[in-house]
Amino acid sequence: MTAAVREEPFIRFRDVEKSFSTKNGTVTAVERLSLDIAEGEFLAIVGPSGCGKSTLLMALAGLTQPTSGSIDVGDERVDGPMTTAGIVFQSAELLSWRTALENILLQAEIRKLDKNAYRERALQLLADVGLEGFADHYPDELSGGMQQRVALCRALLHEPSMVLMDEPLGALDAITRDQVQLDLQHLWLTVRSTVVLITHSIEEAVFLADRVVVLSPRPASIAADLTIDLPRPRHIADRGSEEFRGHVNAIREEFSRLGVFGDDE
Amino acid sequence: MTSEQTVTAPSTARPTTTRDGVIQAKLAGAARRWLPSTTLLVLLVGAWQIASSTGLVEEYVLPAPFTIVESMVVDASRYWEASVPTLWAIVLGFVLSVLVAVPIAIGMVYSPLFERVLYPLLVLSQVVPKVAIAPLFIIWFGFGDPPKILMVVLISFFPLVIDAAVGFHAARPESLMLVRSMGASRWQAFWKIRFPWALPSIFAGAKVAITLAVVGAVVAEFVGADRGLGVLITQARGNLDTVTVFAGIGYLSALGLVLFAIIGLLERLLVRGSRSGRSFEAAGGL
């Protein structure tokens, strides 16, 4: 990635709309949404569950087509699977018949990259997330947090220009979640690729992201767009700070305004 | 487990006892597992032996177990000679069955139209009683191996098709999305995701199929063939030679067991990553 000065932002959503036809008629998941994401930016998208966050991410990954509107990444129009991306799903999606290392190297295998060259990198990534010594373990032998860290390594193996994460920590317990957030920040500070993180945790969004976009309930549209200018690396203890709480409260108020919390008199 | 076995015992006393302890624990485990069923088997065979040898049951109705085993050992070459054509029909038919069933299952997964067209026919082919159409095979193909092999294929391919199709359908959509985002071709998605996902299922089908294959071969030989264990049994039955009938059944069962064990061994070699071990423990007997 050369840091060429671009006229336009790296990722551009233009009037993106996505609707599904169901038995009970058409459901609009995303409504005329436009969004720019700069290169190297860590963007978090938060929104109430079922608001179409994942649909948005899958559309960016090229795994589902928007009903109308367009998405561009760099000079490329998204009209098929974006192979320049690295994706992490909510469940780790490791293949049970492959060891941790083999799961990471799937990325190189499918792309027909030199496996031996990437083996080194895979082992380095594992070490970066504190999993040295677990390369030859099968997923069954790893905890949920470990599995998700392996999935993260897999998503980063080919040095993707953008990393798309769909609630990657949603299934983890609070303590593991903190740890993986730190690992994620550590990795991102070394890689600095563009990240789009979908999450339903406001704290997680504020802790990790440069910018947080708040989506409205379905059909999704942008309700707020906040810059998080906290210095990095951020620490777990920073979450008690006034600034941190301020950002979290601002987003929570936004949710209240949207009527997400139904019975909060 | 294996690492403990491969450790060479040093001269010091403690590790040696640990190693012996491991072996003892394994023996104890095996005893616990096999003792109840073995005891029951020994009791049953013992009762049978007594019933036959004391004349409680006529020897030609139910020969004593020792007489049967004696015949199996003494006349081993005769039984083995009869086993070879049967074994040949089973193995060839089973392999053909796999070669037919797996591609059909793949076709059904990738083409809903193909599935809609073929599925009713598959079910129909199974509800037709095979024993009833066996004589037709002899009219069409004579008394040689082809009708036997055809019968084996017909009887064993159904569980293979069904289980393989279930397996190929089982791949998680997220796994497929993941490799699509890596730019995988259809071919890669199949070999890296769908096929390994389907393997345990295919083996489940293969285990059912191999036992049915034995049945298929014997049914075909009963109806009419020139050689094989089924032929030997039919002829012996005609002569009221129940010892040979029982010994033949013994050989057939042994064939089935060995073939089943081979499939199990292949499964353990090819299906990696424990997928069932933990769930058993997690179930806690539920």
TrEMBL record, chain A:
Coiled-coil positions: none
Positions of transmembrane segments: none
Gene Ontology MF annotations: ATP binding; ATP hydrolysis activity
Gene3D superfamilies in the record: P-loop containing nucleotide triphosphate hydrolases
Keyword check for rRNA-binding: no
Occurrences of domain ABC transporter (ranges): 11-242
Record-linked InterPro entries: AAA+_ATPase, ABC_transporter-like_ATP-bd, ABC_transporter-like_CS, ABC_transporter_ATP-bind, P-loop_NTPase
Keyword Transport: yes
Keywords: ATP-binding, Nucleotide-binding, Transport
Pfam families (UniProt xref): ABC_tran (PF00005)
Name of the featured protein: ABC transporter ATP-binding protein
Organism: Aeromicrobium piscarium
TrEMBL record, chain B:
Coiled-coil residues: none
Gene Ontology biological process: transmembrane transport
A single GO cellular-component term on record: plasma membrane
PROSITE patterns (UniProt xref): ABC_TM1
CDD domains cross-referenced by the UniProt entry: TM_PBP2
Family note: Belongs to the binding-protein-dependent transport system permease family.
Protein name stated in the entry: ABC transporter permease
High-level lineage: Bacteria, Bacillati, Actinomycetota, Actinomycetes, Propionibacteriales
